[in-house]
Design brief:
367 residues; alpha/beta; Rossmann fold; eight-stranded mixed sheet; five-stranded antiparallel sheet; 14 helices
């Protein structure tokens, strides 16, 4: 049975389902959802690229930031947790860099939290020669000290679609010779989300509310005893995310390297994402013991970590390698660099001057 038929059957049995439940099934239904199927997702034969697909330098720079965190934490045993590791390419590059520091390598525990059995198998094949442990939940690493990081993860969490009418309404999905949208009064939980962030939507404004993201950052805050959290994703603070020109929201679908706004097509075969609200991650992070270190875009993050110096040294040592690596690195900085943002939080650490935040965008208010 096709996934679309399973969803239709559920609607006929239970009535209209929330868009969040629809998206959850489309992305994560066992064996048939986008992330749980064996469909190639990332790279040339997939539906989109990530920064780690462009060049290994992205992983090296991220590894450099994690190494600096290890020094700040006292050069003790360190657990590094990557949440949602995709194909494992970024893990491979980060581990390769961290292994260049023999002292760190001896006390490093590298863990991956991955819900998708298919992706976990792909990661294990790629990293079979590395000392990596896999978990299906962060709760199994409760009390850890070190760094938890993610690259393009919260954007893929199922979201609630809401629209402001006379009151806040939530989008539900029904079926009448095709999938249709039905508006119902939003729950208090959705209303309180906007209230806590001091967000007021104008009439007709449609947007997404990612309750899963605040649950996720809460789990991170509870699990981390001491250390840092690095979140890399596309998105904005509330003040930018809810501008009037975004009054139709940010939900997008990716299929075969094309972008569309049709979530009811290619069900289970296309990715669905929405922009991350970094103000929400900061707000609910603070509620769970995480303090903000800084917020910047990927370009400034990489420049702070010395990617310009990396290119300069490469040009001097190996002009041939320089020309091979220059274009993907330029894309990391100039294309993806201004699209993706980086937020770093900390817990149990008083003073932390991080190279990746040398050019922190503190002027862009998160609260």
């Amino acid at each position: 049975m096709k996934l679309s038929d399973i969803i239709i059957q559920k609607i006929r049995q239970q009535g209209p389902i929330s868009f969040c439940d629809f998206m959850e099934m489309a992305l994560y239904y066992p064996g048939l959802g986008y992330y749980t199927s064996d469909k190639k997702k990332i790279g040339k034969s997939g539906d989109y690229y990530t920064s780690s697909n462009l060049t290994s330098v992205f992983g090296e720079m991220l590894g450099k930031q994690i190494e600096e965190m290890w020094y700040i934490l006292g050069k003790k045993e360190m657990t590094v947790v990557e949440m949602g590791a995709g194909t494992g390419i970024l893990s491979e590059d980060v581990i390769k860099f961290l292994k260049t520091n023999k002292d760190l390598s001896r006390v490093l525990n590298y863990c991956i939290v991955e819900k998708s059995p298919y992706l976990q198998k792909e990661q294990q094949d790629r990293l079979k020669n590395e000392n990596v442990k896999w978990y299906d939940s962060l709760s199994k690493l409760w009390g850890m000290e070190g760094c938890i990081f993610s690259n393009e993860l919260p954007d893929a969490f199922p979201i609630h679609l809401v629209e402001m009418k006379n009151e806040l309404m939530e989008v539900f999905v029904g079926y009448e010779n095709g999938f249709i949208e039905i508006l119902k009064p939003a729950s208090d939980q959705l209303k309180n989300y906007l209230k806590e962030l001091d967000v007021t939507l104008s009439s007709g404004y449609r947007t997404e509310i990612n309750l899963e993201a605040i649950k996720w950052i809460g789990q991170i805050g509870s699990s981390l005893k001491k250390g840092f959290v690095i979140s890399i994703d596309y998105g904005y603070p509330s003040i930018e995310l809810y501008q009037e020109y975004r009054n139709r929201g940010t939900l997008m679908c990716y299929y075969d390297h094309t972008v569309n706004e049709s979530p009811f097509e290619h069900i289970g075969e296309q990715d669905m994402t929405s922009h991350v609200n970094f103000s929400a991650l900061d707000h609910w992070g603070r509620k769970n013991g995480l303090d903000l270190c800084g917020f910047t875009d990927q370009a400034y993050f990489l420049i702070g970590l010395g990617i310009d110096e990396y290119l300069k040294n490469l040009q001097e040592k190996s002009p041939k390698d320089y020309f091979l690596k220059m274009l993907p690195i330029k894309s990391l900085i100039m294309d993806m660099g201004v699209t993706f943002n980086v937020m770093i939080q900390k817990k149990g650490v008083e003073h932390a001057e991080l190279s990746g935040l040398k050019f922190s965008l503190q002027a862009m208010k998160l609260r």
